[in-house]
Every structure is written in structure tokens, then in C-alpha cells.
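pinned: reference chain
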Amino acid sequence: MKNFNSEIHEKIGNGFRAKSDGSINAVREILYSAFLDRFKVESLVAIQSSDDVMVKVLEKKLESKGRDRGVVQLDDPDLRTGLEYYDSQNLLLNGDTPDSLLANGTPNEAA
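pinned: its C-alpha cells
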């Protein structure tokens, strides 16, 4: 096939197309329960037991949004801000990070 480059193309039938990075079909809205399942238990315990007023306000805000809608928008700027604050307070534990918690959803997590 003329112009085929295996690093940037994939074969389809008798032709080829550009490889997809997955962003076209990225799942950015997931079930609230699936979002909670992403957290390590230790992180959830640390968040729940925090006496920090900002953590309590963020927790209520994020919980309310998720519960009311039943879904979590992974691109919600308030969500990222909240997770980054949790991280700055050392409440995200055992590998939980804002980026890992906001990674593209899987088909099983999709709303």
C-alpha cells in the first residue's frame, strides 16, 4: 500500500486509516457509583474523616452533583479542582491521583 506507515496507520480491509488515539470515542460521563469505585478505600476514609472545612464543602458539592444526576462528568472543572485539593491535603492515597480518577471511562462505567 502506497504511503502506508505502520507507526501512524492501521490496516482496514484492502486499505488503511490513521490510528486513533481513542479520544474520538472517549467516555467522559460515567455512573456515579463507577466513579466512587475508582477510589481506593483508604482515600475514601481519609476524605470522610477529614476535619478540613474545605474538604467537607467540596465533598458535599461533588456528592450532590453526582447523586442528583446519577452520573459524573469527568471534564467538570469543579471535579478536577476538588480532586486537586484533596491531593494537596494528602487525602488521595495508594496511587489515587486526580489524573487517574479522571481518566477516560470504560464501556462498563459509561452512563
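why pinned: The first helix runs from residue 32 to 38. The first strand starts at residue 9 and ends at 12.
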